[in-house]
Automatic annotation (TrEMBL):
Record keyword Transmembrane present: yes
Membrane-crossing residue ranges in chain numbering: 53-70, 209-229, 249-268, 275-292, 298-319
Localization per Swiss-Prot or TrEMBL: Cell membrane
Pfam family, any one: LPG_synthase_TM
UniProt KW keywords: Cell membrane, Membrane, Transmembrane, Transmembrane helix
Originating organism: Pseudothioclava arenosa
Name recorded for this polypeptide: TIGR00374 family protein
Signal peptide (UniProt feature, chain positions): none
Membrane-topology annotation of the record: Multi-pass membrane protein
Gene Ontology cellular component annotations, sorted alphabetically: plasma membrane
Amino acid sequence: MMSMNTAPSVLPARRLRDFALLGGLLALVGIGLAGLAAQTGWEESWAQASRLGLWQIGALLGLSLVNYLFRAGRWHLLARRLGLQVGALQSLGHFLGGFAMSVTPGRVGELVRMRWLKRETGWAVERTAPLVLMDRAGDLAAMALILGGSVSLAAGGIAGALPVTVLALAAAIVATRPRLLAACITFAHRLTGRFDRLFARARRAARTLARFSHGPTLAFSLALGLLGWTAEGYAFDLLLSWMGADIGLAKAIAIFVFATLAGGLTGAPGGLGGAEAAMVALLTLEGVPLEISVPATAIIRLTTLWFAIAIGLAAFPLAERRSLRSQQVRP
């Protein structure tokens, strides 16, 4: 077992590793976008980006904030349904603070929210794990429905949208069905034949999902997710229109959601690389020239992913200090 004396030295090493990985991915994404911009000439790409005024950037950030607030509301709703005695502002701090870890591999860093809940409520991680699972399943379900609906309304559709939609919906269904999830965990355990305690804890957490099998709770949480992600998709449509590449609301939302899901499937931190590549490729297929698609992709990622990370970095120390204070006063 690792002693308390060695733990502090391990944590900085892990952070350095994560920062190195993030820096490498950012460099690769930047090089890729720069290369595409160079093919069309920097002047054209910069001219397209500079057409946006401060109020337009503010509108894009505002729509992203709508997404974060609606999803934070869903987090609070699910937390209360699970039985956690937390306030709305407390849940808001947990949810937004977790964004600081969005670019960790597989976004596992967002599990810091569970650490805060453990300090403040005394609940073990395995008891709060269903909350994180339901939150992620809510995103998958909402985005799958938005993608399916927008593709059906968009002329011509999007190649590859159907399998991505099916995968996202299947993952959401499995994650929200206690018996089905427990069966999948048991099957995985039999395949590996190892990690008995880990799989046992996972099965106990899966059974806790029954608390969320409440029609109004599921419907309201799904509605919050749909409204939130639609707001960001609408922001992408506005951006393209302002840059002179109006491809229609349904198609813009479909491309945004598809690229976000595709980036997540790569497992890269924040979907870096995969989301940008998918977005540029799909816009190109729609006839949007590179001098527009490249800066549009860079801007929408800055006003969504990186804006969320900036908010998370601001909220993280506040949530951390509050959880430490709560841990000290909790009996």
